[in-house]
């Protein structure tokens, strides 16, 4: 969601080129782990437990990549990043992939020199308020104080929305979700705005979640997804097709539990996906078992979604547009052939 960076576009391009030229796949194999940039902590998406073990929707993607590349889903170092620090961390090579609630935009894909691997969660910006305010719509927020994370797309979205509706607001700028939660819950701001998935994740860790409500308006498109640096096409292909493998596995009924058995399927695409037919792995510098390992690490897209953020979790997020294209959503992977 970040709009600004600590580096100029030209400096970013030079950094991306120098880091990518070494070959991220070779670097990862040499050090024996993937350094994955994640949030500083967002329930359901990426957060550490009291033992420092990370879990969540984005965490599981990182583990799938590690399984695909290194054969070990635990071969991941998780580096917490804020909206302000995430892009410099990726540009400089501090992290190998960024997997945190980051919106795919034109400028990030081009001017900042990044390559988005796809969309793993279709989202939109919303608003959360305390129930006792009696507010039913964002159109009733004229004059409100609004907590907003610095350096995010939500800043401009918020300004545009209020301007278009002839309303005013007072911004309360914060660094990360933890600070936003503290300010919002203490009453330092009337409203918290971010992606609706982020609001759901924040709401469940408030002292009294039932005393807060997410308003119905969705004021933007926020296609969230993992990203890597421009200039290293092989590494980008590995990340992109790992994500596609998880989505395709759901569509074809391949799960963590049955992946080995499904290698004997009569369906040619399942056989290509799982490496029992064809030679897709060699095309991205991996063996033919890479996708099977990624799926077995934490399951297909549905398994990852349902375990971390689905309707039966504290977040309770319905699939909605994130359902497969065959089930009324827009989630779609190119074919494995």
Automatic annotation (TrEMBL):
Q: Name one GO biological process term.
A: amino acid transport
Tell me where the signal peptide lies. 1-22
Q: Which residues form the Solute-binding protein family 3/N-terminal domain?
A: 33-262
Q: What is this protein called?
A: Amino acid ABC transporter substrate-binding protein
What superkingdom does the record give?
Answer: Bacteria
- Sorted alphabetically, which keywords does the UniProt record give? Signal, Transport
Q: One matching Pfam family, short form?
A: SBP_bac_3
Q: Which InterPro entries match?
A: Bact_solute-bind_prot3, SBP_3_CS, Solute-binding_3/MltF_N
Organism expressing this protein natively: Hwanghaeella grinnelliae
Say which family it is in.
Answer: Belongs to the bacterial solute-binding protein 3 family.
């Amino acid at each position: 969601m970040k709009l600004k960076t600590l580096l100029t576009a030209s400096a970013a391009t030079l950094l991306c080129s120098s880091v990518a030229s070494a070959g991220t796949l070779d670097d990862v194999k040499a050090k024996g782990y993937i350094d994955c940039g994640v949030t500083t902590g967002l329930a359901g998406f990426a957060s550490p437990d009291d033992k420092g073990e990370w879990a969540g929707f984005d965490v599981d993607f990182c583990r799938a990549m590690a399984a695909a590349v290194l054969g070990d889903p635990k071969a991941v170092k998780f580096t917490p990043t804020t909206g302000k620090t995430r892009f410099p961390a990726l540009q400089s090579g501090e992290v190998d992939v960024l997997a945190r609630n980051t919106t795919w935009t034109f400028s990030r894909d081009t001017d900042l020199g990044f390559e988005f691997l796809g969309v793993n969660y279709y989202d939109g910006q919303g608003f959360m308020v305390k129930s006792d305010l009696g507010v039913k719509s964002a159109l009733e927020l004229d004059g409100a104080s609004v907590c907003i994370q610095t350096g995010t797309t939500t800043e401009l979205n918020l300004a545009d929305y209020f301007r278009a509706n002839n309303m005013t607001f007072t911004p309360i700028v914060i660094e990360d979700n933890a600070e936003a939660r503290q300010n919002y819950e203490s009453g330092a701001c009337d409203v918290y705005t971010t992606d609706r998935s982020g609001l759901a994740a924040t709401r469940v860790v408030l002292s009294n979640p039932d005393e807060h409500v997410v308003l119905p308006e969705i004021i933007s498109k926020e296609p969230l997804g993992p990203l890597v640096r421009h200039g290293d096409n092989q590494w980008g292909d590995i990340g992109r097709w790992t994500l596609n493998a998880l989505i395709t596995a759901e569509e074809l009924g391949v799960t963590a539990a049955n992946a080995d058995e499904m290698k004997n399927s009569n369906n040619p695409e399942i056989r290509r996906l799982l490496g029992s037919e064809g030679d897709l792995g060699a095309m991205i510098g991996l063996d033919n078992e890479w996708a099977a390992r990624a799926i077995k690490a934490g399951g297909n897209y549905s398994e990852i979604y349902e375990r971390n953020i689905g309707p039966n979790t504290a977040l309770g997020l319905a699939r909605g547009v994130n359902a497969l294209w065959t089930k009324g959503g827009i989630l779609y992977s190119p074919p494995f052939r």
